[in-house]
Specification:
Layout lengths: L14 H31 L3 H28 L11 H16 L2 H27 L2 H30 L15 H25 L4 H14 L8 H14 L1 H18 L11 H27 L1
Helix pairs in contact: 1-2, 1-3, 1-4, 2-5, 3-4, 3-6, 4-5, 4-6, 4-7, 8-9
Bound molecules: fe (ii) ion (2 copies).
């Protein structure tokens, strides 16, 4: 943090923009702390000493990012229009999510961390930085992004690792809907993502560019042969198959409309990960033909 000149003042901005920037950096500061806690929880779940040590350094990185986000909040808080406090939904969500990561199968824990990093630590922070359009914010976020590249590389590596190493949930922890932490995540997660991520993103990235990039990145990564035995990747492909089937695509379209009518949020960005979008129409036709041929072969054999 000492690499930057914090004595500078930002260019004049509107009252509305100052309040938004301060609130978003305030929430970002908590998100970075949350990311740090998740890496620490993951480190405690792994046996490999090298992996454990790497994730401990990631915890240190995220705490540093949190301090930087807090300093950026103070930097933009020129007029002290209000006291900024972190989002309540996020505060309620945090302990449940950390406990879930502490007990889940590390393959699933890593998958949630990977998704969280792509969506919050990268897409949200990048959009916030672009919205700020400020040289000091640019310099700080460039530095944070250097750490994020290492985090993502390890998130991807651990996805491959869990493809070849069978992992288990923590001993004595409750499974599925018997786990109270899962209920907490489901109860507070939608409010958290809505208010801390989707609503600000509609202001800062109305074309959903960042989220479309996230979806494409996840799809391309999950299509790599090295990760096919990871249970989370299997689940992803099952969900994708469903939503690309005739019945599933109708369910998806209705859900998208209901969400838009009820909350105003546009979830059409998920289509960026579709087979047609990633590989083009030709591949889509080939895949469907292959599936039909396989089903025909199975019917003949039975
Ligand atoms: Fe971070
Ligand atoms: Fe990170």
């Amino acid at each position: 943090m000492n690499d930057f000149d914090w004595s500078k003042k930002p260019e004049p901005i509107s009252k509305e923009k100052e309040i938004r920037l301060c609130q978003y950096f305030c929430d970002m500061s908590h998100i970075e702390r949350l990311a740090g806690a998740l890496f620490l929880a993951l480190s405690n779940r792994l046996d490999d000493p090298t992996l454990k040590a790497i994730y401990q350094t990631f915890h240190t990185d995220e705490v540093r990012h949190s301090v930087a986000a807090n300093k950026l909040m103070d930097y933009f808080d020129v007029h002290h229009y209000q006291v900024y406090t972190t989002n309540m939904w996020m505060n309620w969500f945090t302990p449940f999510f950390i406990r879930a990561i502490e007990t889940l199968n590390p393959a699933f824990a890593n998958s949630y961390i990977l998704g969280g990093e792509l969506i919050l630590d990268i897409a949200l922070l990048r959009s916030l930085n672009e919205y700020a359009g400020d040289p000091l914010s640019n310099a700080v976020v460039d530095k944070i992004n250097q750490d994020e590249s290492r985090h993502l590389a390890m998130d991807f590596y651990l996805t491959e690792y869990c493809s070849t190493h069978k992992m288990e949930r923590a001993k004595g922890s409750r499974k599925g809907f018997l786990n109270p932490d899962l209920w907490g995540v489901m109860a507070f997660g939608p409010g958290f993502f809505n208010e801390v991520f989707f609503q600000p993103m509609q202001v800062m990235d109305p074309t959903n560019y960042q989220m479309k990039e996230v979806m494409k990145r996840i799809r391309r990564f999950n299509d790599r042969p090295e990760v096919q035995k990871n249970p989370t990747v299997k689940n992803w492909h099952e969900a994708l198959e469903f939503f690309e089937s005739p019945a599933g695509s109708r369910v998806g379209a209705v859900a998208e409309k209901i969400i838009k009518a009820a909350t105003g949020l546009d979830f059409s960005f998920v289509r960026a990960a579709s087979t047609e979008n990633i590989y083009g129409k030709e591949k889509e036709t080939t895949r469907k033909t292959d599936d039909a041929a396989e089903q025909f072969a199975k019917a003949l054999a039975s």
